[in-house]
Amino acid sequence: MAYSTLSNFSIRGIATCVPADVVDNQSGLEGVDPATARKVSAMAGVRRRHVSDGTVTASDLCRQAGAQLLDALGWAPESVDGLILVTQSPDYFLPSSSCLVHRDLGFPESTAAFDVGLGCSGYPYGLWLGAMMLNSGLDRVVVMHGETPSLFCHPEDHGTTLLFGDAGSATALERDESGGTAAFSLHSDGAGYSELIIRGGGFRDRDPQDPRDRYLHMDGPEIFAFSLARVPELIRETLDRAGIGPEDVDHFVLHQSNQFMMKHLARKCGLDPSTVPIILEEFGNTGGVSVPLAMTQAIPGDRTGSKRICAIGYGVGLSWSSALFDLDPRACLLHSTYESAASEDTP
Amino acid sequence: MSETDFLEWCGTLFNEPADALTMDTRREEIGGWDSMGMLLLMADLDEIHGIQLKEEELSELKTLRDIASLIEARAPKSG
User: Fold this and answer.
1) I need a surface site. Which of A163, A166, A332, B67 has the fewest CB within 10 A?
2) Model-level pTM?
3) In this predicted model, what pLDDT tens digit does every residue of A305-326 receive, in sequence order?
């Protein structure tokens, strides 16, 4: 069973970044019937979304979040031993997006940089991997998570076009013998691989006959069935193994999938709604990045005392994960809107 | 739940007049039983009847009678 507890590290800060372009679901989208837009938006809880114009990539958003975070912490790029970029929105099939960020932020050759191909469950997985690296002897690791799911959507699929926004994030982890103990629970079920999928464009079907196969196929009811079955179980397992109850957690930061689904899950798990931030109204579903994004949006920057966080990711894979950790009051939480860089990548 | 109560519940759930529904009304005849309607149905089945639909069961629900039969078969019996 992939349950592990790790100590000797602390989260020093989290930064998130969203594109400047904003789509207002209420003011109508081209080709979307206003009644449909109202119905989907009301159920999903999405009013506005920050979306890429097609030139801004997940690595761009992560790069800006990373630059802001390193600057705030006073971390020289040379001091970072590891860079993980969790994404399913890579700039290229190859090289990995982490190598592009590695170049742009001036990390040294001694920095290990690699991508992890996970989506909605990616944040707890990324934290676990980063904490593992610190426990293996590294001193500083930056875990990035970036996605541009708005670009996955077929313009005529209004179940997805009205739902998704884009975002990038960077989380700074440091070896710290006085850091508390974090617990991670990680799960997978590949049998559900087709419930959220982009079928074409990869090497299984390089040039799909149906152009829609280049876009996201999402079976909402099947994903809801999966979430209903797995998320409450995951939260119970996480709390039980830590020997605590819901009242001992300050913030349950769930993947921002859909307001209707999140509220149902929170009720089902007996969570106090005030401990479950929902930021869908302004950002939509930004994939797994929605977890750190909800943290920078909903957790006060001027908090007193340590806050216990239970981060929950669930979705594409199928894959689901939790991370239970304490967030030090000194950890910075930063957010920015993307500003175009002068030098975008050219291979 | 009586048949009348069941059809009333379905009408509320799918935003359809209950008197336009029968046990044999098919999913494609109910505008509100789209993918969002299915989410509402799943949430109510879970919350009211303690039934969690499995992914493979979703496609088996074709008429309102199928929903009623599911509740009859799967809801925990009281008493």
Assistant:
1) A332
2) 0.92
3) 999 999 999 999 999 999 999 9
